[in-house]
Structure formats: structure tokens, C-alpha cells
Amino acid sequence: MIVNVNPTYHIIFRTCDVIQSLHNTPRPFGLDKRSLIKICFKSLIRSLEGMSYTITIVGDRLSEELIEFFTNYQVTLVQGEFGNDQSLRKCIEIAMILPENDWVYFVEDDYLHTHEAFSWINDLIVNRDQYISKKALARRLRFWKRRLDKTPIIIHTPDYPDRYLPKYLRFSMIFVSRYCHWRQITNTTFTFLLRGSSLRKYSKILFMSCAGANDGYLSRALFGGFFFWRKALCLSPIPGVSTHMHDGVMTPLVDWEKYVKEFSD
Fold this sequence. Notes:
Helix 1 packs across helix 10 and helix 8 (203-209) packs antiparallel against helix 9. The chain is 31% helix and 21% strand. The protein has helices at residues 33-47, 64-70, 84-95, 117-126, 128-131, 138-141, 196-201, 203-209, 215-222, 256-264, and strands spanning 8-15, 52-60, 76-80, 103-108, 111-113, 153-155, 174-176, 181-185, 192-195, 233-238, 242-244. The protein has 10 helices and 11 strands. It is of the alpha/beta class.
């Protein structure tokens, strides 16, 4: 596999400030939705320092306040009255015309990022051949003539705490990189990063998952478990480099209140 030593990242930030919370789940630290979006976006910008990147905002019925906020940054703003399903489709449509060797990060507006997020992600992508050995699972996969080092990777940036509950424990491969461990996972939300070539390969699955915003279907169809026939290897960092800003599901081992205070200024 040819690795782009200096990858370009295309951020597609999907946002809507009309709805406080899709499932009426409380927001941490007493944040309202607009404040939360601003804090999460600023944390993302901070994590991208030193990287080559573009940002597209897909805004669904945005308030004038948020429109004004985003115009302070170098972004492409795509606005409309989409609804949840159609805004997902719009994100994928935008991504489909991006270069195959670049990386696309689909990110929802309520994910807060650490300063190190893209440094750690970039390290994994650039040094993949060192971290994911050609011999990994070679015996198990030899009958299918598959090699794990050739399998497309998808990165899910948070580390959900329910993965550590006894009833959800399952087999996972662990890889060590310069900055953290990366654990194989089998389910994600619609916040994930993948290469442009992988986006095209799995485009049918991605578009089908937009119906009902079905991340369960997305995960089942896209991510390999013990075998990887036509499926991707999904990795999540330990500790996580982002958190979903809902009470009860926040990435552990990170002082997220510190980041909220920093980006609230």
C-alpha cells in the first residue's frame, strides 16, 4: 500500500443547533447546544495545527449566530434544511469528489477533541506499516489470502466507556504506536475518518446507512470482527482523542472539563 507521507485531511463538520439533543440526553457541564458546537469546533481547529486540511461545514437550519461564528474561520459553508438523514447524504456526496489519497473526517458537532488528536492520528496513518505487521493474524487469514496490513483502516476518535463493561467485552486486536494504543472496535457513530479510496469502495454501504441514520447497519456492514472479508479494520485510540459530549458516554481518563474551560474563553 502506498502511504501519503504528508496526508491532507478534509474535515466535514455536520452541525445543527435547532435541536438541543437528539435523544434528550443531558449535555455535560451545563452546556447549551450553541456553546457546545463552538467549543467542539474550536477544539477541532486546535488539534489540526500543523496539518494540511480543509473544512466544510454542512449546516442544517443554522441560526444567524452560528453562521456568523463559522465565518470567522476559513471554511466552506454548505447550508440547507436537510434533516438528519439528508445531511448525512450531503456529507458523503461532498466527500465523494475528494482525492482518493486524501483522508476524510466525518465529524458530528458534539465531539470535543484533545490537542493531540490529529498528531496521534497522523502518526498512525504515516507509520501504519510499522504498527500493523504483515504477520498480524497471518495464520487465521491465510485461507482467504488476506493480509491485515492491506486491509483498509477506519479511525473512530473517541473511546466509549461501555466497551469496558463485562456484558460488552469481546475479542479485540491491540496495536501500539508512538503515542498510544489502538484497539480494534466493531461499532461506531457517524464520526469517523477514512481514506478517499476506502470511501469509494464502501460508498454503497455509507449511502444506505443514511436511511434512518443507521450507524448500527453501518458498523455491521463495514467493520471486520475476527475475519475481514471485504471489510475494514476499525481502530479507536486508548485513551480516546475525542469524546461524545453526552452524559454517561464520555471518553474516560481525560480531563474534558479542562478543555471546555479552555475553549469557552
